[in-house]
Amino acid sequence: MMISNGIEDEEKWLAEGIAGIQHNAFYLHRALDANNLREALKFSAQLLSELRTSRLSPHKYYELYMRAFDELRRLEMFFKDEDRHGCSVVDLYELVQHAGNILPRLYLLCTVGSVYIKSKEAPAKDVLKDLVEMCRAVQHPIRGLFLRSYLAQVSRDKLPDIGSEYEGEGDTVMDAVEFVLQNFTEMNKLWVRMQHQGPLREKEKLEKERNELRDLVGKNLHVLSQIEGVDLEIYRDTVLPRVLEQIVNCKDELAQYYLMDCIIQVFPDEYHLQTLEILLGACPQLQPTVDLKTVLSQLMERLSNYASSSPELLPEFLQVEAFSKLSNAIGKVIEAQADMPIVGAITLYVSLLTFTLRVHPDRLDYVDQVLGACVKKLSGKPKLEDSKATKQVVALLSAPLDKYDDIVTALTLSNYPRVMDHLDAGTNKVMAMVIIRSIMKNKTCVSTSDKVEVLFELIKGLIKDLEGISTDELDEEDFNEEQNSVACLMHMLYNDDPEEMLQIICTVWKHIKAGGPKRLPFTVPPLVFSALKLVRRLQGQDGDVAGEEVPATPKKIFQLLNQIIEALSVVPSPELALRLYLQCAEAANDCDLEPVAYEFFTQAFVLYEEEVADSKAQVTAIHLIIGTLQRMNVFGVENRDTLTHKATGYSAKLLKKPDQCRAVYACSHLFWVDDQDGIKDGERVLLCLKRSLRIANAAQQMANVTRGSSGPLTLFVEILNKYLYFFEKGNPQITSSVIQGLIELIKTEMQSDSTTANHASDAFFTSTLRYIQFQKQKGGAMGEKYDPIKL
């Protein structure tokens, strides 16, 4: 209620003030029209007396001031025209000083002073000095600020500047600078004093009011920056030291922050660059609560933009040692502001790093220095838990990646991993994903084991459990995405030199083997295939080389592969391990290493026997074993027989009869390999096919017993197709009469009452018969072969 009353009262006072101005303005206009100087001075003084109020807030006072300002402009026009009032400007300057009250007197004096300078009857510097000194008579903050603002306004186009009509005869640019600086100093004192005018409980209100008035003070700095004659020398030797002295001495947080910001915004970038030391030297002397991180960030941003505007400017930055000056200043500010939150310090380092990457992208030592300073600040503190600080560290670490588009450059920065160590486990993983995405996006190839070592140190959050987080707590989808990213990353690690490539594989294995049972199924396969790719490159090299340094040979790599896959079978992930053993066996076959290939098959069979228990998994595994074994040509008779015997034995032991049947007829391919030197044992092929027929028959009978019908004849048609395959390949044991017999058998079964009609198997059989018919009609040698078969 009190607040609303206060606002209503203020509105009432403002209305009264405006009414007073309007009333006196009416008589003023009459006096001006009548060219009556005495009356004009009398009513203008009464009109200006309304500005003596202390009851209005800055916002409302400004409204009142603008009304009076408009009238003063009109009065100034009258003063300029000596013919109208018949009084010389010198006499007028004396005359207005007889006004009864100090505030109206000074407003009138400034107005006449402006005309006095324009008349050039006295040096501009003398009038300006007189005015700026006289204005000291008003010490009320709001009234004083608006009065001095009026003085700045009416004098800004009358300053003795280069090329200005008021320069010369002893009036120099330095006089203009001196005047503006003096006005600025006095205004700043008034502005700071406002803070101490009211009771403590009104601190917030006072701060709000001061914020509303800050532009009046800042305008002086803008005027200074507009003076043509203020060159670098004057700025460096006079303007900047005087302004900074005022800023440091006022010991006011609001004024210091705003005015530092003003300096950065209004003066040219080249001046900032050449006076960096002076400007930065003031920073540690400011109040500890001043938000210097924003001020310095803006300075660095302006300098970065300035540097990128033209490449020719780079030598200037190096000449003034901009980086080391900024770096030292930031260090001192962080030291001086002991209470600065960690997020503030890191924000400063992010700005410095951004500056460095934009101005000196080739100086990796600078980049590393910034990261090192950040490590120093973070060391001795627990892991970051403040989300804002964490965000800034991620920004700090992401900046080099974005700049160089090349993780390899970031890997050369010794402090990069040390900064990452200060992140909590969750953010560490986020950053690791950012690094991997950067590599994938830019298709960066990491080509040395040292760099791989650093890279895997950076992404350790993804490849092993960090303190405080176990894989059980993770969201499965996120976890899978992370591990797939690590798997993709492995394909970006490559070197043409086999030695180095083997080193890279060993380094990766060293890191990922600690990944635990959940991670290994994702990370082992890409590593195995990387190693197999290397094996293919080295194909044909022998393993026995003299000398201490054993080079990268297939044999050596296979030994490593054995260890890697063994870790996977322990996890346990037997099906995956079995597939990888078979892949290795195939590669060993191509390298002509029979003992190695045999060992891998042995491991695969051991896994099949001991670990693969699920019947579906067994079916898949046995078909994989048969398929791989069929392509092997490295084995001698004895080894091949042993393995083939194992495979056929396991096929016949599968749980379901149809699975048994299919695995057994697949084994027939193990005895007939269609290569030039391949095995061709027709009898054993026929044996397998007959055995599969017996199993198919048993499956039919079993179905008859359990379901009352023998089920579809798909298995018989599949076996018939196998017979046809070997018949065409020229197996002497498979004759047209054997095929004829099988066709008759299927037809008889199809007509039997116990067989269930099945569209798919009927269509399969019909299309098989169509194929035989087609071969008969085709003629030639194949046609003759098929001719005896009657359909």
TrEMBL record:
Bilayer topology annotation: Peripheral membrane protein
Domain of life per record: Eukaryota
Alphabetized InterPro entries for the sequence: ARM-type_fold (IPR016024), Vps35 (IPR005378), Vps35_C (IPR042491)
Gene3D superfamilies per record: Vacuolar protein sorting-associated protein 35, helical subcomplex Vps35-C
Compartments reported by the entry: Membrane
Keywords associated with the record: Membrane, Protein transport, Transport
A Pfam family of this chain: Vps35
Main location as per UniProt: membrane
Family (UniProt): Belongs to the VPS35 family.
Function: Plays a role in vesicular protein sorting.
Protein name: Vacuolar protein sorting-associated protein 35
Organism field: Rehmannia glutinosa
